[in-house]
Amino acid sequence: MTSAPTIGVLALQGDVREHVRSLQATGARAVTVRRPAELEAVDALVVPGGESTTIWKLAEAFELLEPLRMRVKSGMPAYGSCAGMIMLADRIEGGVEGQQTLGGIDMVVRRNAFGRQVDSFEASLDFAGRGPMRAVFIRAPWVESVGADVEVLGLAEPGDRIVAVRQGPLLATSFHPELTGDTRVHSYFVEMVREL
Amino acid sequence: MSSTPEITDTAVTGTARVKRGMAEMLKGGVIMDVVTPEQAKIAEDAGAVAVMALERVPADIRAEGGVSRMSDPDMIDGIIAGVSIPVMAKARIGHLVEAQVLQAIGVDYVDESEVLTPADEANHIDKWAFTVPFVCGATNLGEALRRITEGAAMIRSKGEAGTGNVVEATRHMRRIRGDIKRLASLDEAELYAAAKELQAPYELVAEIAKTGKLPVVLFTAGGIATPADAAMMMQLGAEGVFVGSGIFKSGDPAKRAAAIVKATTFYDDPDVIAKVSRGLGEAMVGINVATLPDSERLANRGW
């Protein structure tokens, strides 16, 4: 891909604006996606932080769930933070009854694993060998287990939990790089998009 | 959760970023008042991003009168156990111990709320002293900035709770946004006088003049009863919506709740709003705010 890729941010609910801003800071073109036609027009997608149950319900109600699954299955690069990580997981624990995800990453993600809001925290961690960064975890999930094809890109100090993973064109973090102004995770994703 | 690990010394809880960040995750969503675990479940199933646990919805507080206080911890526990989404609860204005109790039982956000009877006529809670984040009501920019100065991590326009009448929410949203726009038009010298007028710290006023927005998320509340109400508030600049009595005082709460969630996401698409507004049954019976005496206006509580 030679020209700047167009990256969509799923804008059903959550911190959409922060992801748009972080993507733009890396030189990518960022647009919001709420409809199937808007999804068709993007090269890659970010699923933002928010409430995974809400994002799932809205995706289902507005007939986006299947198109999203199809795009992910057909190799569209995607990055999910927090609720977005849950959406990209093949299997989840602690979800509500019947909760659906898009899947794509061979992992089990535990929802709200680090606890309630009073347990939410920020900590330093190394992401993909790119040096320490401050990471913000909000009622965050962690990765319980990963399949053989999943690369672990980051661990959180409390309990050495897996909090960043990549499988092929799919990237996910438990934390919110979009909240800190540190664009290294988004740059990593945009590089992934350009490579594919 | 028993499996929660110890947070080590490199990890810190309760920072401004963690508190404000929580509200960022609620954006574009609907937070619903609930009084039982069953209602909380209906709200979650409808796509609410959080629920507000309280003993009586504002419409009933208004009807029944008396002193209105923090809810029974058992009742809040029941709601926390019943849903997986965040649970908020209300403390009285200035009632620091109610807020301490709410933090101790693990609520995710404390609403220092004018809907309850104020406990201190001079001071709001020092919200910096807490790990749990706070949301506070405001009718104008000065009030919002005073709450942020005290540590509020999220602001909601007050509106007039329990009326089912959106007129005050409209007034407060337009006022806050109008005040921000006015700041942006001032030169630096004028910002000092503006800070004095707003009774807010100069640094905060200067920051808002520059960025054109509050440093925390701004939701709307107080009188939202229909999908169109919610969408209008979003068009007026709200980043999300609190719905109090509007859902569970209506004819078909589950359907109305889901419709308000959809209208909040597609607030700028009248076709979607039209579609979700059909067949919702009766809306809550409203109150004409103009007939409410000042003493019964909840928005006048707090300063």
Automatic annotation (TrEMBL), chain A:
Transmembrane segments: none
Entry's EC annotation: 4.3.3.6, 3.5.1.2
Amino-acid positions noted as binding L-glutamine in the UniProt annotation, renumbered to this chain: G50, E51, S52, R111, I138, R139
GO molecular function: glutaminase activity; pyridoxal 5'-phosphate synthase (glutamine hydrolysing) activity
Pfam family name, one: SNO
Keywords associated with the record: Glutamine amidotransferase, Hydrolase, Lyase, Pyridoxal phosphate
Domain of life: Bacteria
Subunit structure of this chain's protein: In the presence of PdxS, forms a dodecamer of heterodimers. Only shows activity in the heterodimer.
Functional summary from the UniProt entry: Catalyzes the hydrolysis of glutamine to glutamate and ammonia as part of the biosynthesis of pyridoxal 5'-phosphate. The resulting ammonia molecule is channeled to the active site of PdxS.
Family stated for the protein in its record: Belongs to the glutaminase PdxT/SNO family.
The protein, known as: Pyridoxal 5'-phosphate synthase subunit PdxT
TrEMBL record, chain B:
Active-site residue list: K90
Residues reported in the UniProt entry to bind D-ribose 5-phosphate: D33, G162, G223, G244, S245
Swiss-Prot/TrEMBL catalytic activity: aldehydo-D-ribose 5-phosphate + D-glyceraldehyde 3-phosphate + L-glutamine = pyridoxal 5'-phosphate + L-glutamate + phosphate + 3 H2O + H(+)
Start and end residues of each PdxS/SNZ N-terminal domain: 16-221
SUPFAM superfamilies: Ribulose-phoshate binding barrel
Pfam families noted in UniProt: SOR_SNZ (PF01680)
Pathway listed: Cofactor biosynthesis; pyridoxal 5'-phosphate biosynthesis
InterPro entries reported in the protein's UniProt record: Aldolase_TIM (IPR013785), PdxS/SNZ (IPR001852), PdxS/SNZ_N (IPR033755), RibuloseP-bd_barrel (IPR011060)
Listed GO MF terms: lyase activity
EC number: 4.3.3.6
Binding annotation for D-glyceraldehyde 3-phosphate: R174
Alphabetized UniProt keyword annotations: Lyase, Pyridoxal phosphate, Schiff base
Entry similarity comment: Belongs to the PdxS/SNZ family.
Protein function: Catalyzes the formation of pyridoxal 5'-phosphate from ribose 5-phosphate (RBP), glyceraldehyde 3-phosphate (G3P) and ammonia. The ammonia is provided by the PdxT subunit. Can also use ribulose 5-phosphate and dihydroxyacetone phosphate as substrates, resulting from enzyme-catalyzed isomerization of RBP and G3P, respectively.
Subunit structure: In the presence of PdxT, forms a dodecamer of heterodimers.
HAMAP family registered for this protein in UniProt: PdxS (MF_01824)
Protein name, UniProt field: Pyridoxal 5'-phosphate synthase subunit PdxS
